[in-house]
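agent> Task received from the user: take the single chain below, predict its 3D structure, and emit structure tokens. No templates, no multimer pairing.
agent> Plan: (1) validate residues, (2) run structure prediction, (3) serialize to tokens, (4) report one or two observations.
agent> Step 1 OK, no nonstandard residues flagged.
tool_call: predict_structure(input=
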Amino acid sequence: MPKKYDLLLFDLDETLLDFGAAESYAFAALLKKFDIIDDGTFFTTFSLINHQTWAEMEQKLITLDQVKVLRFQRFIEHFSLPFEPRVMAFEYLRKLSENHTEIPGAMNLILSLSGNYRLGLVTNGLSQVQKPRLRNSGLELYFEHIFISEEIKHAKPSYEFFKLVFEKFQNPDKRRTLIVGDSMSSDIKGGIDYGIDTCWFNPYHVPPKFQPTYTITDLSQLADLLLEED
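)
tool_result: status=success, residues=230
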């Protein structure tokens, strides 16, 4: 049987690379840089603030440029810290770009798919962070096109983001395209809204808000799923 999909679109953070590890690394370096002693709540609070700020960006309530500084403005105000948000933001992004911890099985998966499928990388993120992480992880070599929301001026789950992706790939058949990602709000919703099949990477068994085409809890399951479709 012929394979069902020609084009596979992959999210980056928490799908192929461990953003939580990068965030922990960068935040620890930030605290050291500014001589801040964590009372045990700083990182947890920042993670919540960061998540909420990115969610506001996905909902088009704020811009990506605002995300960079606003999350630190809110963090500083929460703990009444005597620092400049822009300075902290710059240092954090610099350290964030240094970490490229892999989600288990990510490189093996991409290697197994390369050559058999067209591969695209679709990420909501900042160029100065994502490009070094992709380069240093070795992943960038295997993607035909890489789409970073800051560069294309649109973010998942917007229709405009996916429209630009499809135009770059010369408008492939939507029925033969699959997006793989961990985010229900950006990857899965974006894929559903654009009319393509979706594969939700859900290692923590979170209840779904939308119904993806497929759900996997380990990246190795995607290879098995695609083999079944061949």
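agent> Step 4: summary for the user.
The CA atoms of residues 2 and 230 lie 5 Å apart.
agent> Done.
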